[in-house]
Design goal:
heterodimer; A: 314 residues; mainly alpha; MetI-like fold; 2 domains; two-stranded antiparallel sheet; 14 helices; B: 310 residues; 16 helices; 0% strand; globular
Chain lengths: 314, 310
């Protein structure tokens, strides 16, 4: 601790008390956070106007709750929103299933005895997590495209199909293929957290179980699974909080005229109706509702975790 | 990750004798071998296609090993107008954005560990809470427009400077440094800035390596901001250009025609849509492939701390 004499001398020399000096040093960064994270919230006002880019809010017409009502005003719009929400929830729901595969992946990987093999698998399977969705799409295109894609060539050569399949431009199984791509990209990475949790389990527990004659499977069931349960719970809470936030990159790059109706998740829908369709106010309304519901989901999931685990995750 | 596990000899022996266990391990090894292959083969496939005879790759005939190896594709592709600009933009935003994020994460984290600061914990929460809410993409887009950040290079770097996730990472790390380290400098009545640069910064290098790697990969991979904010071709990033090349085959054919001013006699090196797509893909993915093996442990270190702090 600094003595009070020193503090006094400091403030005398610089003219500003130390506590404000520290704050002033932080201030530029706080301003950045204010601008890029808080100011967009003011944009929610656009949900109550007919806003067109290039015009100020004063020049725009105030319409009250018009856009909110318009979501449910006619049967066409209701069907659209329903379709988009079903897509969003279906893809997120399948994503939750993937969440359950990651711990199994980690447990099985942990059973591999050869250290070099285990480490190589871990390093190489996390690689796809670090490439962008555009690159994933480039990879998908190289492997699956209808003209010279590797998969089509192989299937043709094997005589399993007569003419090439257009997997990328197909309206069938879109939710499933999207989930599979997410899995290809993210499974190895999600497993890392569980591997860490497994490594953190007290080895003595296993020794004790072995003395009691527990088989390898029983050890997994009664020691490993409870050991990774907290990690699972935290990730589940995050996944539930993000049920409506699938992000947009993946669906944007894989989107085409044929699969559009089943690939359009909320984030992509907002982009399509606003930036492409020009309905900025309606887009704002939808994304505003989405943000509020997501925040609610986060609080509910966190509360549930608190009850189950006795401690919240934040 | 790197804990050494000692396997008792008796367990090994028992498993070796049991057929069930043997079958389990066989299946287990096979599964992981195949899944790993699935994760890396696509990159290998694209790579061998970029260095093979372009007439064969256009028909999808190169699958296991390169045929008719040549490196002309990489030379030709860089001549496509716009691609080198895009590479410059991508590299620029990655280098500048990463430097700013790393500096800001370190400095902000250092400041918010100072108990003396006015309303310290409030400001810390003010930053960190932004991880959990989001106004939505359209209000963000309109704000960026109003700030004049459309068709502006700074739109790539400014919004990412203060990353709450990185601040949490570094702050946790700084708190683990014994305060005696810093106090030793305080005696010489050095200012905060000097203490930060001379003492805290060097001690934080391991966690800053993690932040650097995360931030660089994030910057390199970013696609959405170009899509929303940039209409000026000069500001397109490699990711964006690649996406356009894959989806707009007619545009691509025109580009190819225009680049082939001096007609090459060797047909195997004549650019086809396939060769251009694959080569550009390889150029975009190469930096990740190169840095990844060396920095993998930093990624892992980062997610561990991040996950614990939630």
């Amino acid at each position: 601790m600094k003595s009070s004499r020193l503090v006094a001398r400091d403030s005398l020399r610089h003219g500003i008390p130390e506590k404000y000096k520290l704050f002033l040093m932080l201030l530029p960064f706080l301003v950045l956070v204010l601008i890029f994270s808080y100011l967009p919230l003011l944009g929610w006002r656009y949900a109550f106007y007919i806003f067109k880019p290039g015009f100020s809010l004063e020049q725009s017409q105030f319409v009250g709750w018009y856009w909110f009502e318009s979501i449910v005003s006619n049967s066409y719009q209701v069907a659209e929103i329903k379709r988009v929400i079903v897509n969003t929830l279906a893809i997120s729901g399948l994503g939750l299933l993937v969440n359950c595969i990651a711990p199994i992946f980690a447990i099985l990987l942990n059973e591999i005895r050869c250290r070099k093999f285990r480490t190589s698998v871990q390093v190489l399977t996390t690689l796809p997590n670090f490439i962008s969705w555009v690159l994933v799409y480039a990879v998908a295109f190289a492997l699956l495209n209808v003209n010279n894609g590797m998969v089509n060539q192989a299937l043709l050569a094997l005589g399993w199909i007569d003419k090439p399949l257009n997997i990328l431009a197909s309206s069938k199984n879109v939710w499933l293929t999207m989930t599979l791509w997410s899995m290809w990209k993210g499974l190895g990475w999600s497993a890392i957290l569980y591997l860490a949790a497994i490594a953190g389990i007290d080895q003595e527990l296993y020794e004790a179980a072995k003395v009691d004659g527990a088989s390898r499977f029983q050890q997994t069931l009664h020691i490993t699974l409870p050991g990774i349960a907290p990690t699972f719970l935290v990730l589940l809470v995050m996944a539930i909080a993000n049920l409506l936030n699938n992000g947009m990159d993946q669906y944007y790059v894989f989107q085409n005229a044929i699969n559009k109706s089943s690939i359009e998740v909320l984030d992509l829908y907002v982009y399509n109706i606003s930036i492409l369709g020009g309905s900025f106010s309606f887009g704002t309304t939808v994304s505003m509702l989405k943000s509020i519901i997501s925040l609610g989901l986060l609080l509910v999931a966190n509360g549930a975790a608190k009850i189950i685990r006795g401690s919240s995750i934040f | 990750m790197h804990t050494k596990r000692t396997i008792p000899a008796n367990r090994l022996k028992r498993n070796r004798t049991s057929i069930g266990a043997f079958a389990f391990h066989l299946i287990n090894y096979t599964f992981f071998f195949l899944f790993t292959l699935l994760c890396i083969y696509p990159f290998y496939y694209i790579f061998i296609n970029t260095i093979s005879d372009n007439q064969l790759t256009a028909r999808g005939l190169v699958t296991l090993y390169p045929i008719g190896i040549h490196f002309e594709n990489y030379v030709q592709v860089m001549k496509i107008p716009g691609l080198s600009t895009a590479a410059l933009v991508s590299v620029g935003r990655t280098v500048l954005g990463t430097m700013l994020t790393v500096f800001a994460s370190a400095f902000v984290s250092y400041l918010v560990t100072k108990q003396k600061m006015w309303m310290r914990s409030f400001w810390y929460r003010f930053i960190v809470i932004t991880m959990y809410f989001n106004a939505g993409i359209i209000p963000w887009y309109i704000l960026m427009m109003n700030l004049g950040l459309t068709n502006n290079f700074f739109a790539y770097v400014l919004p990412g400077i203060v990353s709450p996730f990185c601040v949490v990472l570094v702050k946790t790390y700084i708190e683990s440094i014994p305060s005696a380290m810093e106090e030793s400098a305080q005696i010489d009545s050095a200012g905060y800035w000097v203490r930060f640069t001379r003492i805290i910064l060097p001690l934080c290098l391991p966690i800053l390596a993690t932040v650097t790697v995360f931030s660089a990969v994030w910057q390199w991979n970013m696609f959405q901001d170009t899509l929303f904010l940039m209409t000026d071709r000069k500001l397109y990033t490699l990711q964006f250009v690649l996406y356009r090349y894959i989806n707009q085959s007619t545009a691509l054919a025109t580009i190819i025609k225009n680049t082939q001013g001096a007609v090459t006699i060797d047909l195997s090196a004549v650019q086809t849509p396939t060769s251009v797509r694959m080569t550009v893909t390889m150029i975009v993915v190469a930096p990740i492939l190169f840095v990844y093996p060396f920095f993998q442990r930093y990624f892992v270190g980062g997610i561990m701390i991040g996950a614990v702090k939630g």
